[in-house]
Automatic annotation (TrEMBL):
Primary gene name: LOC103372314
Family classification: Belongs to the parvalbumin family.
GO CC, alphabetical: cytoplasm
Known function: In muscle, parvalbumin is thought to be involved in relaxation after contraction. It binds two calcium ions.
Domain called EF-hand: residue spans: 39-74, 78-109
Species per Swiss-Prot/TrEMBL record: Stegastes partitus (bicolor damselfish)
Residue numbers binding Ca(2+) 1: 52, 54, 56, 58, 63
Protein name (database record): Parvalbumin
Keywords annotated in UniProt: Calcium, Metal-binding, Muscle protein, Repeat
Taxonomic path: Eukaryota, Metazoa, Chordata, Craniata, Vertebrata
Residues binding Ca(2+) 2: 91, 93, 95, 102
Amino acid sequence: MSLTSILSAEAIDNAVKDCQAPDSFSYKKFFQLCGLSSKTPQEVKNVFQILDEDNSGYIEESELKYFLQRFVPGARTLTEAETKSFISAADDDNDGRIGAEEFQTMVLS
């Protein structure tokens, strides 16, 4: 499964282009622009599984840094500040990583 089987390539490109400048990433705006926030809970879970590169059931800080590159190869990495803010916004149980349920809640709320 690929991200473009769930989201349109054009929407993904627009979302990534919108946050090209360092420290301009907003997860809410990104999820809206790429169309993820209007998908079903199952589709959001499928996207989570694609982003969870090591299949640990969590997106760790090391994976989150390359979040944009999972959507578009060659996109920039997230800054440390963006990565930490992304994690703290979703990490309801304060374990320093984002679980599938936490990701789903973040995207769909």
